[in-house]
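Q: What does the predicted 3D structure of Probable potassium transport system protein Kup look like?
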Amino acid sequence: MSEQSDIESRRTDDATDGVASPGGTGTLSLKRPSKKKAGGAAKEHRDPKGSHHGGAAIPVSLAAMLVTIGVVYGDIGTSPMYVTKALLAGQGGIMSITEEFVLGALSLVIWTVTLLTTVKYVLVSLKADNHGEGGIFALYSIVRRYGKWLIIPAMLGGSALLADGVLTPAVTITTGVEGLRTIPETHALIGDNQMNVVIITLVIVCVLFLVQRAGTSKIGRAFGPIMLGWFLFLGITGLLFTFTNPKVLLAINPLYGIQFLFSSHNHAGIMILGSCFLATTGAEALYSDMGHVGRGNIYATWPFVKVCLILSYLGQGAWLLANAGNTGLAGIEDLNPFFQMLPDFVRPFSVVFSVLAAIIASQALITGAFSLVSEASRLDLMPHMQIFYPAETKGQLYIPMVNYVMWAGCVIVVLLFQSSAHMESAYGLAITITMLSTTTLLFVYLHKVRKLKLFPWIFLAFFIALEGFFFGSSLTKFFHGGYFTILLASLIMGVMLCWYAGTAVERRQATLLPVRNYLKQLERLRDDTTYDLVSDNLVYLTNDTNTDYLDRDILYSILDKHPKRARAWWFVNVEVTDDPHTYAYSVESFGTDYVFRVHLYLGYKVNQRVNAYLRQVVTDLSASGELPPQTHEYSVYKKPGPIGSFKFCMLRKTLAQESDVDSKERTAIALKYAIRSVAGSPARWYGLENSSVLVEYVPLFIKFTSMSKLVRVSPNDRP
């Protein structure tokens, strides 16, 4: 078999070719800018500090701050519901409470939130943005040119964060629903049967994922007032209990935490850090969601959120001091100070509030997952998927495939673990991996991009040590549920590794050929009547933005794989701009009337109906005389238009058995193509589902293994 052996192609013809009748583009209107202007749409600028900038920043306003509170802080905002509960269980219950424990544990919690959230993420990470987008993949895209090895912490941290995003909705919503049992009336309804809690949780989870299509802006406006009320509730109730025993304010001193960590009275030992770490599990969401709400709005709202959180922890600590050794509370299973400290008439309100807050906590992780996957797709670490922009801000996006996968994963977690106590064992382990990975990338950013000398090394040593302690303490949960999070993270990273490795094999054979060198061949093919006319207009969608070059696979498809004769060939690429409502295009005809290189510049809010926009481009060129009339005798119209039929050709690469690649590379390619098959149809993304589409498979042009030469023998002889 030769290098250019044919591979069977599959042809899919619909009832119509998908190109509207003359004048059928309706209100769609594209501008044809000059090449200089059009080409400038993709330019990227980097400031001296290393941040990428493209498009206007999200302005700071009261409305945007309300959206920020509703979208970003849900995860970290629900931590008071279970952090003190976990600390109390690790110490041995209410009968083991001492003043040393309360002040020491609270001090560890307060400084965990301060160091990891305020210092690392708010003060340092938010400055490292890529076109306004945050998250570990956005950070990697800034620093990746400083070392190929940086792909490892990027994939490791990203996959762990996505895995944690599946677990968060399950554990927070289940915790809130279980709070219904602290109310006698609702306890009488649901009883002690955990399956009732599971059913209620699953209903809430399904509704939550179902409304994601509305977009984070609309969800944020709905959730914002609720979360504002939630944080005020945390702050006010915590402050009232703090007044009853102001001594808990001593916990602000970090020495109490350090002394208790190594004290013999610390029954949990180093594992107490695993419970303290739960107080900051939403910190990574602040960075990931930056593209949704803007850096300035996080700066403006975080002080208020942090004060409310600290007051809630202090209030629970004051209640513990007042009830230390209370035998009446000793018999309560999984005693939760957050609910128990409230008066009976307030508790129903707090439970309902906590369930709503748990839903919003899940929202923070879901929106962060959309941003992460979007960044991963741009970096070719994940397949490209259909993305919707429901709001006027580019950072606010919705990815159906990610939504469905997280939905299914969350349902599996709820059914597998059923109770929040079991889920908490798995909670937080994966996020420590993400934080360690982010620290590594931030060090490179500070040292290489920001050109700082001493501070990056201090930053690296301090946070690697701190987060290393948290990781070590969280490992103790591995066999109690942490294994599930690690397994899920491993599966996600496996997808990234397969896609990355498969893409690397493809890039080895990728070759761009100058279009002008093939114009004569294309002209002869157009006029060669010995070949049937595939279509009047044959359209190839490309990823390349270079006007003068085409991927070899496209030219191979036209010239070598049974030559595809047409009256005109169109090579179209779509570029999404930072402006929401861009309608522009450019055309290079290379001095011909049969080869056209088209660049469509569409805003991120614009529906990418390529066939409709291409119809307008073709109509413009026909009117200007750049495209000759394409006469045809048959039509449903009395007077046929000057434009003929269209066919869209979409190429898929395949790896021949004879390709000279090792088994690992072959496996990577096979897995990448398997992943691609379930990632969605590009034909649907580009509005071609009703068009005439030719899906063609072309070989990867990789070196073939040498074959032994055959010896010809006569028909009657046997070798």
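A (community wiki): The structure tokens above were generated from the sequence. The first helix runs from residue 35 to 39. Confidence is low (pLDDT under 50) at residues 1-28, 35-55.
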